[in-house]
Amino acid sequence: MARHGVPIDRTVLADWMGRTGAAIAPVVDHMAKRLCGKARGFMSTRQRLRCLIRHRYPAPPGVVFHYRPGRKGEYAAEILDGFNGTIQVDAYGGYSHLATSDRMGGDPLRLAFCWAHGRRKLIKATPKSGSPIVDEALVRIAALYKIEDSIRGSDPEHRRAVRQDLSLPLVDEFFTWLAAQAKRVSRKSDLGKALAYMLTRQDGFRLFLDDGHLDIDSNLVENAIRRPAMNRRNALFAGHDEGGRNWARFASLIGTCKMNGIEPYAYLCDLFTRLANGHLAKDIDALMPWAHAARIKASQ
Length: 300
What we know:
Layout: H1 10-36, E1 40-46, E2 49-54, E3 62-67, H2 73-79, E4 86-89, E5 110-113, H3 115-124, H4 132-151, H5 156-182, H6 190-200, H7 202-210, H8 219-230, H9 241-259, H10 264-276, H11 289-299
Parallel strand pairs: 1-4, 4-5
Antiparallel strand pairs: 1-2, 2-3
Helix pairs in contact: 1-9, 3-4, 3-6, 4-5, 5-6, 5-7, 9-10
């Protein structure tokens, strides 16, 4: 803009982002409630950013990023207040209390653990000289992913049926084999800890077998959160906590637009026009990205 003779001070740009970020807060908050109203979701933590995502439902897909000033487990509990059902999570230990009977804000959640994280822990624990145990484990896990590749994009009932038929026996054999290998390895070694990680969370690793809505891993949400996390140093309005919250709000709207095949700039132009005309008090559901997509489709 400066090259075109319209220099705008950095502080002015930051102020614009702060004001517009505050204007979209009710929209993103409402979208978060809509996503949390479903019985299944994905959550991942990256630095001070948490991501909650919904996909493969009759309702449209969406993603909401939540900024919090730390990584404490209490922040996850706050974000998931009122959410009941199954949440697919990464290896972060701050989610474990959500599955206990004394959970505040709802019933104990079912935690579906990520096979990709379990696989990474095994690879990371591999001694420099190599390990036949890790090699065999990776081959067994690869067989599960081959089945997942064959049913990706299928309806939930078909995914569940195939998993019950093909994946369940492989998972049973895997954990029986893994328990036998754990007896041969020192519990204090890196490999022993990696084996124990999967064995002690066996129930969570098995959940995807019984629910076709779940994925075998949390890669979907990891991919969603990676781009905003990588961009945080370039985010000119994220110099403090409120800036971080504004940054997360814009990332939520843009990410949801992408998941629904919407051009983000067109949506934001429409959104701010409606906000300026006082639409917020009329029907906030009409401001959701998927509502914008429906209007475009209806007009074609």
